[in-house]
Design a protein that fits this description.
The protein is about 30% helix and about 25% strand. The protein is an alpha+beta fold. It is globular.
């Protein structure tokens, strides 16, 4: 919480009490920058999928060195962009950003991370929940696309904090 401090000469009586109460109210009313940032970081699942589709439609090519609209053009940069994180994370740092959930609880807009790769989960392909649709930046020479992937035993399913819908 942001605290506003003011030096007010306190005089005895009602005026002094009023000044102290006013300072207390001002310090409670000022929102902290952390609270404002938390509110601004919400995103709807449909928005995550829409942002993923833009790179697929634009056929953004894979690159660990190049950037497209502020995000690195690799798999973790793709997830960072879809989640609207503000910067490109790596497949190692994404688990520190998202909350790990059970794979069976995955919903469109979540991320699936395996060592060295990350994708956006777009929905289950079958009822057995062993294969799913994914939006991704695949690898060298490829470009962003949607494909069917198998859920591997070492996969971590992550949910972005602030995701709604």
């Amino acid at each position: 919480m942001k605290v506003i401090r003011a030096v007010i000469p306190v005089r005895a009586g009602i005026l002094g009490l009023f000044a102290v109460a006013l300072c207390a109210m001002l310090s409670l009313a000022a929102p902290s920058s952390a609270a404002a940032a938390t509110r601004a970081k919400t995103i709807h699942r449909d928005t995550v999928i829409s942002r993923s589709k833009v790179w697929v439609q634009k056929r953004v090519p894979y690159s660990q060195r190049r950037y497209y609209r502020g995000y690195r053009q690799d798999c973790s940069g793709f997830v960072s962009m879809a989640w609207k994180l503000g910067k490109s994370h790596t497949s190692r740092s994404l688990p520190r950003v998202g909350k790990r959930i059970k794979p069976k609880d995955a919903k469109p807009g979540d991320a699936v991370v395996v060592p060295g790769h990350a994708v956006i989960f777009a929905g289950w392909k079958n009822k057995s929940k062993k294969t799913f649709y994914a939006y991704e930046e695949p690898s060298w020479g490829g470009h962003a696309h949607k494909r069917v992937r198998q859920l591997k035993h070492n996969a971590k399913v992550l949910r972005r904090p602030g995701i709604t819908g």
